[in-house]
Design a protein that fits this description.
By secondary structure, the protein is α+β, with helices and mostly antiparallel strands. The chain is built from 7 helices and 4 strands; from the N terminus they run αβββαααβααα. The longest helix has 20 residues.
């Protein structure tokens, strides 16, 4: 067995343990701020129709993310997840505050022929009338992301680029990415990300832009395993 295949199998075994701890996956559509979230953590999204093929059976991870990677950041895990989920009341959201929403939106626009010229303007804010015109697309993005099952790993370490959360995020993305590597768990032919205008998303099979073209350090698995074990004991 090749090292990447072996490490990928181990990664999914760790997620299996994590899933047992949580009693299964959750979706953002059925989640809220009053649920018992750890202050900080790493999250792993799956997507209907996306299955592993070379590393074993089961759903494949399509996005890995974390938060508070700047020293002094006060962003919580739920705050970050809620930015991806969008606004519960209107069903909309703010893709300018979530690269995940931005990427999914560009793919929906391309696949479904939606009209939203301002979507990828690269501006951090927009006037009220522009946001109003974007609402139908934001709602579709919320529906798409809200239906994706996900797991989360509580990692309550201090904010900063060298945090264990950053190590796990970078390592997992680099391990799972198909970018420039022999195919292991490639996306399905119908994967929405194939319509994304970011080549790294298309080539990696992940809703990630950063770290997909990097080599992974297998040491991240030991860091991840230690936190999975902690969560299992605290159950």
């Amino acid at each position: 067995m090749k090292p990447r295949e072996e490490d990928t199998k181990y990664f999914y075994e760790l997620l299996k343990e994590l899933s047992f701890t949580h009693g299964g996956c959750r979706t953002l559509a059925r989640s809220g701020g009053r649920d018992h979230w750890p202050t900080r953590g790493v999250y792993f999204f799956f997507e209907d129709g996306e299955q592993r093929s070379g590393s074993g059976a089961g759903a494949r991870v399509v996005r890995v993310g974390t938060h508070a990677l700047k020293a002094g950041s006060g962003t919580t895990l739920w705050k970050r997840l809620s930015q991806h989920r969008g606004t519960a009341r209107s069903g909309g959201g703010n893709h300018r505050g979530s690269i995940f929403r931005l990427l999914v939106g560009t793919s929906l626009i391309a696949r479904d022929g939606l009209s939203c010229p301002s979507w990828d303007s690269r501006r951090s804010s927009a006037p009220k009338e522009v946001r109003a015109a974007e609402l139908p697309t934001e709602q579709q993005v919320s529906s798409e992301i809200g239906a994706m099952p996900f797991l989360w790993l509580g990692v309550d370490d201090a904010p900063g680029p060298d945090s264990d959360r950053g190590i796990i995020e970078r390592g997992a993305i680099a391990l799972l990415s198909e970018f420039g590597k022999p195919a292991l768990d490639p996306p399905s032919p119908n994967w929405l990300g194939r319509y994304c205008d970011r080549p790294k998303v298309q080539a990696s099979g992940l809703w990630n832009n950063n770290h997909v073209d990097e080599d992974y350090d297998p040491a991240f698995l030991d860091v991840m395993a230690s936190w999975v074990e902690k969560r299992g004991k605290a159950r």
